[in-house]
Design brief:
The protein has 143 residues and is of the alpha+beta class. Helices cover 40% and strands 23% of the residues. It has a domain of 94 residues.
Length: 143
């Protein structure tokens, strides 16, 4: 049975801003400056954060059946979860949850007043963006 992780479409807003700042492929300095200001705003808005925690997942990678013997290989992944203390809904692929709420989401004031829904539509169609954004998340760099 596949493991269920109900909050996989939520991202740390500060870490997203830092990833934008540190991405060498993003050349738009206005965007990078806005991302830097966003990371500062999150720091000022967050009242308290909990210390980083360990997140553990177990998945069955391989099952072999040899005669009457069954061999199962379980992969255990552990990663430290920390962050800036403020999360946002940011699916990195177009899954069932995103498809279910996409139309309703476009009716939010946030979507009407900004291009957030267009951003979500674009980002959900970038292959392997989830891995890319995690690898670029480091400390903010002053501009």
């Amino acid at each position: 049975m596949a493991s269920y992780h109900p909050f996989t479409d939520y991202r740390d807003l500060r870490e997203l801003a830092i990833a934008i700042q540190n991405n060498p492929e993003i050349k738009d300095e206005t965007l990078k400056e806005a991302a830097y200001k966003l990371s500062l705003a999150v720091d000022q808005a967050v009242v308290i954060k909990t210390p980083p925690t360990q997140y553990r997942t177990e998945t069955v990678e391989k099952i072999e059946k040899v005669g009457k013997t069954r061999k199962t290989h379980i992969v255990i992944n552990e990663e430290e979860i920390s962050g800036g203390g403020l999360s946002i809904y940011l699916p990195l692929k177009e899954g069932n949850t995103y498809r279910k709420f996409k139309e309703d989401y476009t009716q939010l004031d946030l979507a009407k007043d900004t291009q957030w829904d267009e951003f979500l539509e674009k980002i959900t169609h970038i292959p392997d963006y989830d891995k890319e954004i995690r690898s670029q998340s480091e400390s903010p760099q002053p501009l």
